[in-house]
Specification:
By secondary structure, the chain is mostly helical. It has a single domain (2-230), classed as Up-down Bundle (Methane Monooxygenase Hydroxylase, Chain G, domain 1). It contains seven helices and no strands. The chain has helices at residues 2-40, 43-74, 78-106, 119-143, 146-176, 181-213, 218-230. Helix 2 runs antiparallel to helix 3 (78-106). The longest helix is centred in the N-terminal third of the chain and has 39 residues, at 2-40. It is elongated and about 65 Å long. The protein starts with a helix and ends with a helix.
Amino acid sequence: MREHTVKAFDEDITRLRGLIAEMGGLAEVALQEALEALIRGDEALGDRVVARDRRLDQLEVEVDRLAVQIIALRAPMADDLREVIAALKIGGVVERIGDYAKNIAKRVGRIENRSRFEPLTLLPTMGEIAGEMVHDVLTAYAARDAQLALEVIRSDEKVDAFYDSIFRNLVSHMVENPATISSAAQLLFVARNIERIGDHATNVAEMVHFAATGSYPPEAEDGQRQRATTS
């Protein structure tokens, strides 16, 4: 009977990991295609990104349902419980990453005179780094690789540096060319969405580290203490 229970639990965990992997793959593609649509001004591609976001929403519901079912029926403990809780949280974060990609795709038709904006040449690189963070953190989750999770956390500094550079560039551009304020503001939102994707990949990395080791990375614990002090 115990062997049957353990086998059933393993099957549930395998299915949970598979759902998270599918969500991550969809989120990666959504970000890549949203940026491609933005750079090319391809509204049809942007619309497809928006439409496919519904699948991510459905998968998040499946992850939530399965995680709650595992906790209720299998009563996991220690390492197993940490993995289920991590998956429950990661599903919600990956869904948010998909939402940010969708937001980028929605702005494709709102940018005029694309050739006048230097940040359009920086956004793909910034997006590529954020996309690599998402890919790597999901690899870390599948392998329970705490070291790779730490590398993802460190990569967020690059995304933040790109955001700061793009922000300064666009603000200067708006001051010098008031007629471009509307389009520049749209690009600011895009850069902010990419920056948030990097933040969310970092959040997932912290959860992966916790699931693998039982503790959060020192950087995450410091941040939690600071928030507790200021709240």
